[in-house]
């Protein structure tokens, strides 16, 4: 997909630890935000136009650990190496598969997720890897202005495997507005938000309100997915 703008967010909370994981595409990196008492690991990959500094990933890393969900932010090898362009989807999937044992190391249920391109990776691989759910943030349902090039089949692959699925989507996302998704897709809309969950300066919804809507939706859903 065409790389999208992913504006930086405020600095995340202090990470518990970082871990380097070798993959066939190079070293990947996992930044852990451990819950004091965890029931689930939420593993989140970044998009094609940015890294783990994206505002939605930062917000979840801050909000979920106090509620019992350890968050693992995953940087793909191309990003760790400082390259500007993401590789082909099959390369992203291969690296994610190689990372999976590290994500399962805490011996907790793992929800696979990510934003944009990272959400696509999670959807394509969740069933085979034994994820207990899929969280898709800013899922790129189609390229902007090209609704005929739908990627709904990737969402269907996750849902068809019987996995709990949640799509969190900005109401102004040019890669797919909430009303464009199939009716059977569980979806939490974020008012006034775009693909990076930014909101216009004069919107009825403020930036902090958009992030609270996003984190509240995920916090309510993650324990249910972890118990599936």
Automatic annotation (TrEMBL):
Keywords: Hydrolase
GO molecular function per UniProt: hydrolase activity
Protein name: Hydrolase
UniProt domain KANL3/Tex30 alpha/beta hydrolase-like: residue ranges: 40-221
Chain residue ranges for the region called Disordered: 1-26
Domain of life of the source: Bacteria
Keyword Amino-acid biosynthesis on entry: no
Hydrolase is among the record's keywords: yes
Ranges of biased composition (kind: Low complexity): 1-25
């Amino acid at each position: 997909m065409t790389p999208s703008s992913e504006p930086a967010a405020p600095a995340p909370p202090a990470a518990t630890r970082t871990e380097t994981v070798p993959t066939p595409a190079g070293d990947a990196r996992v930044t852990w935000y451990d819950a004091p008492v965890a029931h689930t690991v939420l593993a989140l990959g970044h998009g094609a136009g940015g890294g783990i500094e994206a505002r939605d990933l930062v917000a979840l890393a801050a909000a979920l650990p106090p509620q019992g969900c350890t968050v693992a932010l995953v940087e793909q090898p191309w990003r760790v190496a400082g390259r500007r362009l993401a590789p082909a989807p099959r390369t992203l999937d291969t690296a994610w598969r190689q990372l999976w044992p590290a994500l399962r190391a805490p011996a907790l249920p793992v929800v696979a997720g990510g934003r944009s391109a990272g959400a696509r990776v999670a959807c394509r691989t969740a069933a085979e890897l034994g994820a207990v759910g899929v969280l898709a943030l800013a899922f790129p349902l189609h390229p902007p202005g090209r609704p005929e090039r739908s990627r709904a089949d990737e969402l269907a692959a996750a849902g068809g495997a019987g996995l709990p699925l949640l799509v969190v989507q900005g109401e102004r996302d040019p890669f797919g507005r909430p009303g464009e998704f199939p009716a059977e897709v569980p979806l939490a809309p974020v008012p006034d938000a775009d693909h990076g969950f930014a909101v216009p300066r004069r919107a009825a919804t403020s930036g902090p309100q958009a992030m609270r809507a996003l984190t509240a939706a995920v916090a309510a859903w993650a324990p249910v997915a972890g118990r599936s």
